[in-house]
Amino acid sequence: MMGDAEELSLKQILAEVFELDPSTIDNTTSIENVELWDSLQHFSMIVSVEQEFGVRFSEDEMGELVSYERLRSALAAKLKPTNGSPAKPDGQRVS
Prior knowledge:
- It is a single chain.
- By secondary structure, this protein is an all-alpha fold.
- It has helices spanning 4-18, 39-53, 59-64, 68-79.
- It has one domain (4-79): Non-ribosomal Peptide Synthetase Peptidyl Carrier Protein, Chain A.
């Protein structure tokens, strides 16, 4: 599950990578309507999200993360607490 702080951080990452106003990022934001969303920026976005949240996406997952909605959903699934998943010192879960 993602809280407001995580969602804000995710929007900030997309805003920085794609040079957008964070307030314009919503479930309609995608590779289809963001001019700077090319393969290089896509990879940059993935790396930034992985570093910020301490998660890893598989190659298959990376190819599917072509919208804010899909990225948010995939990230929320990785942040979902699981039994035996160690927490990092800042309280984030390691996937």
